[in-house]
Amino acid sequence: MAVKSPKVAKKTTAKPSTTKAATPSKAAAKSAAPKPKKATAKKAAAAPKATAARRKSPAAAATPVLLSGGNPQITKGYGDAPIRAYIQAMPGWKRDVGHRLDALIERTIPGVSKAVKWNSPMYGVEGQGWFLGIHCFTKYIKVAFFRGTSLRPIPPGASKSQDTRYLDIREDEPLDEAQFASWVKQASQLPGERM
Question: What is the Cα 13 distance to its own chain's centre?
Fold first, then answer.
């Protein structure tokens, strides 16, 4: 009996020990690999949320960055709010002109569609596309009429684009509001840019 019990003990321990020895090393290898992946995935998933939270914070929204030439960097968005944020961030005399331009466009085209895209206010007619864009430069504001060659009279600034014409508004030059409103009305009746 003394001989049988050690054999039984050896057989019993031999089988489980072989199984246990193989199982822990495979399990350890399997469990070791996913842990870093899960940690990396959690960090990657957490990073955009933190960035988005920073973008939405009132402090970040209150102080937009001015890009080269003093053009405000405003997050892409649709509606009146992004336009207001852009105008509020325009430096110096340009802010007052921005308010005037926005008011003239709204008065001329009631219900005009608005957006900020590529750090520029865009104005359009729903279903027709964008007809006008505004951009700040160091010494002037550039208004782009995307179908400007079809306007009468044609706006004075030439463009590399065949259809686009520009109106540059400078601090020391008066804005002809009647002519601007006429261009806005004409431009709104033409097919706009799909951007």
Answer: 65
- Secondary structure element (H or E) that encloses residue 116, with its range: strand 113-117
Q: Which residue has the tokens 């340009």?
A: 94
Which CATH number among 3.30.1050.10, 1.25.40.80, 3.90.1180.10, 3.90.1150.200 corresponds to the domain 65-188?
A: 3.90.1150.200
Is residue 102 within 8 A of residue 87, CB to CB? The reply is yes
Which tens digit of pLDDT belongs to each residue from 51-79?
343 344 444 445 678 777 778 888 899 99
CA within 13 Å, CB half, 85: 26
The tens digit of pLDDT for each residue in 40-50 reads 444 333 333 33
pTM strictly above 0.85: no
Distance, CA of 69 to CA of 72 (rounded, Å): 9
Q: What length is written for the chain? A: 195
